[in-house]
Amino acid sequence: MNDLVVILTMVISAIIGAFGAILLKKAAPELKLKIRSLLNPKLIFGLGLYFIAVLVFIWLLKTVNLSILYPMTSLTYIATIALSVWLLNEKMNKYKWLSITIIIIGNILINIRL
Predict the structure, then answer these.
(1) Please, are residues 111 and 7 in contact by the beta-carbon 8 Å criterion?
(2) What angle do CA 42, 45, 48 make, to 5 degrees?
(3) Per the confidence metrics, is the pTM higher than 0.85?
(4) Which end of the chain is more exposed for a tag (fewer CB within 10 A), N or C?
(5) Crossing angle for the helix pair 75-88 and 3-27, nearest 10 degrees?
(6) Residues 6 or more apart in contact with residue 108 via CB below 8 angstroms
C-alpha cells in the first residue's frame, strides 16, 4: 500500500477516534448507574466512532507492519488535544505543545524508510 495512503488513512482514523473521545467526554456527566444511561446518543455515537476507527486500523493491518502502524495511533492524541481545545475550550500549555512536537517527531522517525 502506498505510504501516503497509509498516513492519510491513519490520520482520518485518528480524527474519527478523537471525535469519539469528545463525545464520550460530553456524555460522561449525564451517565448514571442505570440501563437507561446506555441509550445516551452521545455515548452511542462516541462508541460508534471508536468502532469505526478500530475497523480502519484492522483494515490497515492487512498490509502495513504493526511496528510502523501502531505508533501512528499516537496521532489520535494530537487530534484529541486539538478537538478538546476547539470544542471543549480546554487550555494548552507549553508541556502539551512539547508533547505534540515529540509525538510528531517520533512518527516521522518511525516512518522514515531506511
Answers:
(1) yes
(2) 145
(3) no
(4) C
(5) 40
(6) none
Residue 69 grid coordinates:
502502524
State residue 113's pLDDT score.
65
Q: Which three cell numbers stand for residue 110?
A: 518511525
Three cell numbers written together for 25: 467526554
Q: Residue 49: left (phi > 0), alpha (psi -120 to 50), or beta?
A: alpha
- Residues near 59 by Cβ (< 8 Å), separated by ≥ 6? 9
- Grouped pLDDT means (10 residues each) for the chain, 114 residues: 86 95 92 80 94 94 88 90 94 93 89 66
Structural domain count, the chain: 1
Range of the domain at 15: 3-111
C-alpha cell at 1: 500500500
Q: Is the Cβ–Cβ distance between 56 and 71 less than 8 Å? A: no
